[in-house]
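FORM 7B: Structural annotation worksheet

SECTION A. Query
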Amino acid sequence: MDQEKDTHTKTETQDEILLAALKLFAEKGYFNTSLSDIAEASGIKTASAIYHHFKHKQMIATALYANILDSLNISIDEIRRKNQKPSEQLHAVVDLFFKLTDEAPEIMQFLLILKINEFLPEAKPLLETAAFVKIIKVIRNGISEGEIRNIDPLLAQTYFFGIIQNTLRMVLTGALDKKAEAYQSQTWLIAWNAIAKK
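SECTION B. Predicted structure
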């Protein structure tokens, strides 16, 4: 019983460390965030106590990236199950990204603003992760079903998500002063019209 309690507490502490690190990385950047900063933000007495959970800061960033991508992958699977047409699936993905930008901006800053390859050089680039490979499949299906123009699926993804990502980056950096939701419908229309079969 005590071991169960210790394991649960250890998991909770790790989650608190990851949450604190995510916020700090988003606010200050990876390189400007120290283990002491993370310890203080997560309520741990000393930076050395973090070593009981993570060997170094890069390990924290690796765990964060994996957790975010796992959640994103699960969300994409759910979107694909709930929506039949590729256009509906893409629309739901865009809805998810805009919702995350407003409700969990640290996650989107981690994915879109931070240069992950600078501090996680071994990590897969975002577009090669399972979630984005599934989005490419949605685009391929859209091409084969005649909803999306017959262009290279990678180009279609670049045109479509380039518009989405740039809009979200502008919201996250404050270049656009309203919440992401305010720009969602016009961004969707422009992105979709960039790839939709006329």
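SECTION C. Observations
The two ends are 63 Å apart (CA to CA). The first helix runs from residue 2 to 28.

SECTION D. Sign-off
Analyst initials: ____
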